[in-house]
Amino acid sequence: MVLQAKYANRTYRKEGYGVRMRYTCMKPFIGFMLSAIDESFNELLKVQTSLNSSQDRMKYFITIFTGKTFSRKEYMNIFKDISPGTASRDLLYGMENNLLKKQGDKRTTIYHILV
After folding, report:
1. Of 16-20, 28-32, 62-66, 87-91, which has the strongest mean pLDDT?
2. Could you give the CA distance from residue 38 to residue 78 in angstroms, rounded to a whole number?
3. Which of 13, 32, 54, 83 could form a disulfide with 90 if both were Cys (CB 3.0 to 4.6 A apart)?
4. Distance from CA of residue 112 to its chain's centroid?
């Protein structure tokens, strides 16, 4: 059994049904998709490796955050791969370097951006 489909002025054939399927004329598409995946992966690695320190994360957060006040939870929503302890140390770094001001205590803590 041979199934045919037309897409973008090319005919693709699928031979065999359920056993082994062979596609013809798909190499350009596969090459395009692999290059797109590779480019996205490399971009992701650049972002992840560039934000390894508290200083880098804090600078990045201050540049992208649009409001003036935020909580630790909002900080952790930006950096999903860090633990609550790491987020607390990052925020402590921000306060020690006069980038942030803390208001409140425990669950009601709000941080103000000073720069």
Report:
1. 87-91
2. 24
3. 54
4. 25
Question: What is the CB neighbour count within 10 angstroms for residue 64?
Answer: 8
Which domains can be identified in the chain, with CATH numbers? 2-47 (no CATH), 51-113 (1.10.10.10)
Residue 21, token pair as written in the block: 């399927």
Strand locations in the chain (E): 2-7, 10-15, 69-70, 100-103, 110-113
What span, in angstroms and rounded, lies between the C-alpha atoms of 83 and 107?
Answer: 16
The amino acid present at 57, given as its one-letter code, is: R
Q: At what angle do helices 84-96 and 54-64 cross, to 10 degrees?
A: 80
